[in-house]
Amino acid sequence: MQVGYARVSTKDQNLALQHEALNKAGCEKIYEDRVSGAKTVRQGLDLALEVLREGDSLVVWKLDRLGRNVKDLVILVGKLEKQGIHFKSLTDNIDTSTTSGRFFFHVMASLAQMERELLVERTQAGLEAARKRGRVGGRKRSMTDSKLAAAKRLLADGVPPKDVVIINSLQAVSGLVRRFHQAGRVFLSVLG
């Protein structure tokens, strides 16, 4: 049995083109979602996956209808393959029931993996270049110099570290300890 899956990202978009292609491809059942491909909860896809049995095929109009993230797509198709379920993408001419279809899918997945790794390398190189120029990424510290001085006075006066954290609107005692340590003023004995 061929089970179709159609998805659009917004309620304003139309599923007619996908339904027509899936019907023409011989899908006996078609499930649909009107939700972003980035969402992990897609009831239509979940229903389609429930009805699929060994020897069946999950059919989509285009790969990006199944998901935006190639990693998740590869994982999903891998799970289908382990269950003896085939995958077809009509516009991409992928059919994992054939040797060439499986090969093409895995080549495409390998290229996507390489692209992800190149993206990570480029990001790391960019961050390193920014650090060399004196730029530091991340959010601004919540523990300003004035808060640090106030915390130091409070701790010296015997205020418990948990109360110092609350007074200074910090997330945790560990942040207070880390900030003192980074400032070169280790007050671990006071916090102990």
Describe the 3D structure:
- This protein is of the alpha/beta class and 192 residues long.
- It is built from nine helices and five strands.
- It is elongated and about 80 Å long.
- The protein starts with a strand and ends with a helix.
Give me the count of strands. Answer: 5
Oligomerization: single chain
The CATH architecture of the largest domain is 3-Layer(aba) Sandwich
Number of domains: 2
Give the CATH H-level superfamily of the largest domain: Resolvase, N-terminal catalytic domain
* Alpha-beta classification: alpha/beta
Task: State the CATH topology of the largest domain.
Answer: Rossmann fold
Radius of gyration: 27 Å
How many helices? The count is 9
Question: What is the beta-strand fraction?
Answer: 5-15%
* CATH class call of the largest domain: Alpha Beta
| Sheet having the most strands | 5 strands, mixed
The percent of residues in helical segments reads 40-55%
What's this model, at a glance?
The protein has 192 residues and is of the alpha/beta class. Helix content is 53%, strand content 12%.
